Amino acid sequence: MIQSMNNGSLNDNSNGVTVSANGHVTYAYSQLANSDSLWFALVNDSHSSVMILGSDGVVEYANQVACAFIGKQPSEVIGRNYAELFDEHHAAERLGLMMQVMKSGNAIAIDGMVRGVAVRTVYRPVPGSSNSRVLLTSRLGPTLQHQANHLETLPVVRARADDYGKLSTLTAREMEILKHIGEGLSTADIAKKLHRSVKTIEWHRVSLGNKLGVSNRVELARIAIAAGIVNLHTTPVVSEVSTAAVEG
After folding, report:
1. Residue 236 carries which DSSP code?
2. Domain 165-227: which topology?
3. Cβ burial, residue 117 (10 Å; 0-12/13-18/19+)
4. Alpha-carbon dihedral of residues 105, 109, 114, 119, nearest 10 degrees?
5. At what angle do helices 187-194 and 172-182 cross, to 10 degrees?
6. CA 31, CA 141: separation in Å to the nearest integer?
7. For 78-100, what is each residue's pLDDT tens digit?
């Protein structure tokens, strides 16, 4: 249990744990990397989203990348329950997975869509903590679905509950056109490929921009790539396995 919060710092007096607002962590959390400098590199230099959750699902730490992805300031994230920050179905699945990790003591990775972005998150039990905590490290973007294998044997599961964010407002045709825009096809190329007029494709492009809140093709392409709907690799996507693997 975090017993106090001062100037953005989290203190667990029962275990000497301090997590400061600027990412400096001492004692238990530092033991994750055996060095404050390595922890600092993880939360500040890796461009990964890093969070620590308590057994009750409350966020005890979140770095700037995590807060920016959630769209809130650190003061609005730390101390809140994970379920308050994400889509209901996504949160329920992830909190269930977190409980499995705490119970088994084994790390696991999960691939899925979060706020319309392809995300791989690795869940690891936090060592040296008086209470059960889980470290979540997430890499945002499509390359996560095609990462090199971990040096350790790490089960990878496919999320059952995807959070498509604004992409959930798109029609099947709009998703198809968004994919082709992400692949770099011109309006004329897309029209030819889909056997539609250029005017029709342009109308769909404008609709995409309105729904997704962007104003040009480059921004639409970035959204398509971030969502992982553009195949940038030839490596197959990780197949779904049972979450029971984490209990092994």
Report:
1. P
2. Arc Repressor Mutant, subunit A (1.10.10)
3. buried
4. 140
5. 130
6. 28
7. 999 999 999 899 999 999 999 99
Sheet strands side by side (includes 156-158):
59-62, 49-54, 133-140, 117-125, 108-114, 156-158
Amino acid 61 reads Y
Question: Under CATH, which number does the domain 4-164+240-247 receive?
Answer: 3.30.450.20
- CA atoms of 119 and 139, how far apart (whole Å): 6
Question: What residue ranges do the domains of the chain occupy?
Answer: 4-164+240-247, 165-227
Q: How far is it, in rounded angstroms, from Cα 67 to Cα 212? A: 21
pLDDT at 9: 44
- Strands 108-114, 117-125: pairing kind: antiparallel
Residue 226 CA to residue 218 CA, distance in Å, equals 12
The structure's pTM equals 0.69
Phi, psi of 243, rounded to the nearest 5 degrees: -65, -10
